């Protein structure tokens, strides 16, 4: 059958009288169009049902791949610097050990008070009092404050303060006040708050 005749059949076709049961006698061009349309719908449905989830899963895998590559590069850089990091950690731990040794334990605080007293006497100062206050617990250490009041001339007080700062245990000095003492104009009274510190982990481990 020629193409002209087929086109004429399509023009003369009454679309309202088409019956799916008689599809076998429809014009072949109409049958071809319907087959192509049905095939297209079938492929679209298969793509939506099968390829859609697979595509979404592929995107997730690609995203995970990018994250894994970043993690690998980060860990590779850490591995390359591992030896240097270990050396730095060793240096830091040694410094921490040194600083911890400078912190007196609770049992060593009386000996520290004795050292401060000896320092004051060596500088020929009169001691009014060295009086402990209550301890204050911090996150990593215990703070032990105590009040100090001594009397003497300016140079001896300065030497005393330098001696306290040079003690092998850590002592910090706060709220220092100097007031004239006596009538000669040379003696002074030094009042101050001092603090020392104990490392909490060592305290708890030793108890």
Q: Quick summary of this structure?
A:
This is Type IV pilus assembly protein PilO. The protein is built from six helices and five strands.
Describe this structure in words.
By secondary structure, the chain is α+β, with helices and mostly antiparallel strands. The chain folds into 2 domains: 13-103; 108-199, Ribosomal protein S6/Translation elongation factor EF1B (Alpha-Beta Plaits, 2-Layer Sandwich), CATH 3.30.70. 56% of the residues lie in helices and 22% in strands. Strands 1, 2, 3, 4 and 5 form a 5-stranded antiparallel sheet that branches. A hairpin with a 6-residue loop joins strand 4 (171-180) and strand 5 (187-199). The longest helix is centred in the first third of the chain and has 53 residues, at 28-80. The radius of gyration is 46 Å and the shape is rod-shaped. The relative contact order is 0.09. Residues 202-207 have low confidence and may be disordered.
